[in-house]
Every structure is written in C-alpha cells, then in structure tokens.
Fold this sequence. Notes:
This protein is 36% helix and 20% strand. The chain is of the alpha/beta class. It has a single domain, classed as Pyruvate-ferredoxin Oxidoreductase, domain 3, CATH 3.40.920. It has a six-stranded mixed sheet, with helices on both faces. Strand 2 and strand 3 form a beta hairpin. Mean pLDDT is 87; it is low at 180-197.
Amino acid sequence: MSKMELRLAGSGGQGVILASVILAEAAVQSGKYTAQSQSYGPEARGGACKAETLISDAPIGFTKVQQPDFLMALTQKALDKYTVSLPEDCLVLVDESLTVPEKLSGHRVLCLPILRAAKETVGRAQTANVLAVGCINELLGITDAETIKKATLLHVPRGTEEINLKALTEGVRLASSASGQEKAPAVRAEKKKGAKQ
C-alpha cells in the first residue's frame, strides 16, 4: 500500500465518524501516516454525514480525500449525496437495504446486511459502525486482526467492549463470506479488494 483514501457515509448518530477514527487509529498503530476528517449536513442527527480517512506509507501533504479508493454508505441519502464523481476503481460498500443508483453501474459494489446483522446477530443496532469496521478491514487489509481489535477497544465506550468485539468479529465474517451474498442489480460486485499498490 502506498496510499488509500476512504470515505464513510451515513446519518448523524450512526457512528461513521467513530468508525473512521478507529480505522485511522489502527493504521497509526501499524506504522502508517493518517489524516482523518468529518462533515455533517445542517442537521447533526439524522442528516447525511461523512467521515474520511487517508492512510499512507509516506507523510501526507493534502489531508482531504479527493479520489476515494473506498466508499461505504449506510443510508440512501448518504449514498446519493456522496457518490458523485467517484473514480471507476472505487470499491463501494452499501447496506443491503439501499437502492444502488444507476450512476454506480460501472463500479464494484458490494451489498452487505450491516444494519440488520448489528441488530439481529450482535443484538444492538448501535454497533453497526464497529461491525462496518470489521467489514472494511477485512476487505481492504488495512491492518491485522489484533491491531484492529486494540484500536476498537481504545475508542468504544467503557462497558461496551464485549458487544463491540462481537460486532467487529461479525463484520469480518460478513465480508469474508461476501461471495455468497446477493449483489445489487446492474452492478458488478467484488468479494475482496486488496490494499492499493
């Protein structure tokens, strides 16, 4: 990996910023350079928001994501808003409940039950962000399993460690078994994308 640009999007309150922070923390612990930023719509909770993380082997000069290698969207509003002018080689991860817009027909799109698994398998809907971290790390190979676990434990609220580690593990499982998932119509899907060379 020389450089990766990640954009995570959802609604205020879904924890995409925390997910981005955990990924940045894991990269730092792996000896990488990182930059992390976020922005909200006019509504702090319920409006579309995004968080971005740059990960690089070399010092980062410009700290904003310009050409995302990866985008995750957890709500329809975020998917529609933050997928404008994506590079063709950007891997897009969306929750299974979303409708993939026609503008993404040339992109690699992977649909996973992130929100449903957090609620039904993990047992707490609020862990969807950490579940997503597990998916993302499995798909992109940002760091090893122990480092992503440590980064997660550094940032989740005290008393929620066990359920968040369960969510992290479930995210890894979902991503690793993605080849068996039904994909969105009219778009290609890819099981796994290695770190950008």
